[in-house]
Amino acid sequence: MAPPAPILLAGDHFVLNRLLAEALNAESGPDAWAVRELALPWPHEPFRAIAEVDEASGSEDALIEALQGVRVCLTQMAPLTERVLAACPDLELFAISRGGPVNANLGAATLHGVAVTYAPGRNAVSTAEHTLGLLLAAMRRIPDSHISVLRGQWKSDLYAYDATGLQVHGSTIGLVGAGAVGGHLATVLTAMGARVLVHDPYVDPAALPRGVVVVPLPELLARSEVVSLHARLTPHTHKLIGAAELALMREGSVLVNCARGGLLDYTALAAALRDGKLFAAALDVYDIEPLPAEHPIRDAPHVVLTPHLAGATRGVAQRAAAMVADEAGRWLRGAEPAYCANPDVLQHRRQPASTPTDHR
Question: Which residue of 61, 75, 96, 237 has the smallest Cβ count within 10 Å?
């Protein structure tokens, strides 16, 4: 029987080491691994650029020390830099429990023979649910009503027709992007009785719920009472929704963005809210984060704001832990990773952990 494989759990205060350990035991059994732990400070300390990688937590020195003799690392935020890779020659798999491996130097990892995996779709359901919550809050202006009650007001005049909110059932709702998040939301909105339009040049219409219609972006904007953004941010989609696109939207419509701040021109959005073009907006992401005190959207009327929390659920943390534990199990069995960010490294894959070999 092979000895337990050395593994580092470099969790944080969201994807906890406890969750990683539980997922690892469920996947491979309690005797498969020799576990070492490193606790990272995120989110109690903001992530930051570390050396050449982005959105990382902790330090190179602490990670280097913890990785000595370790062949597999499960983490969300640890910085996989050239310096770390050069100092940790036993490392073979670096499994990142987030949707993109921004905290890893993929080129250097490939040169050092380290496979880097990630966890696509880990927060798709959570983000879709948060989007639905913001959508409903904006359509019914729930935060405004909440604040008025706290202030001792009782605005029964909100039953006046022109002051009333919108409802999902019977509304036309346009989704810009129909990947994991948009596709799930389309299913939910259809079940709630909405007419759902989608704009996505890459979507297979057959994969969408029955009744969902794929249309060009200008048509979606012109027909929808609610527009929700779910596209990827690329150079092509940067400021996809600007002043010209907002002008195409229906009078009294709602805009929701839980995708990426760069998709939207926030100055133009604030102007559209102030002049009454839009009924409301609901936002979880911004062009600048954290949101500056002088940002124009702060003073816009009828806007619902949350601080980039769409993926912040316990279910996401548990799923993220399970996905990297699965990658560790694959490595242990000698199987290829499910989601490898640097697949070129697989051409030089070492033998599985259960086979005696000289790893360097």
Answer: 61
DSSP 318-349: HHHHHHHHHHHHHHHHTPPPSSBS-GGGGGGP
Please identify which of the residues 36, 295, 302, 308 carries the catalytic annotation: 308
On whether the pTM is more than 0.85, the answer is yes
124-305, CATH topology level: Rossmann fold (3.40.50)
Q: Is the pLDDT of residue 73 over 50?
A: yes
Classify domain 5-122+313-348 by CATH number. 3.40.50.720
Using a pLDDT cut of 70, give the percent of the chain over it: 96
Query: Residue 232 and residue 30: Cα distance in Å, rounded?
Result: 39
With contact defined as beta carbons under 8 Å apart, do 128 and 184 qualify?
yes
Query: Positive or negative CA dihedral for 256, 120, 8, 84?
Result: negative
SS3 content of the chain, % helix, strand, coil (to 5): 35, 20, 45
Does the N-terminal peptide bond of residue 79 adopt cis geometry, omega within 30 degrees of 0? no
Instruction: From the candidates 45, 52, 65, 289, give the one annotated as an active-site residue.
Output: 289
For CATH 3.40.50.720, list the domain ranges present in the chain.
Answer: 5-122+313-348, 124-305
Catalytic site residue from 260, 319, 327, 330? 260
HSE-up of residue 249 (Cα within 13 Å, Cβ side) = 29
pLDDT at 2: 75
Active site residue 289: yes
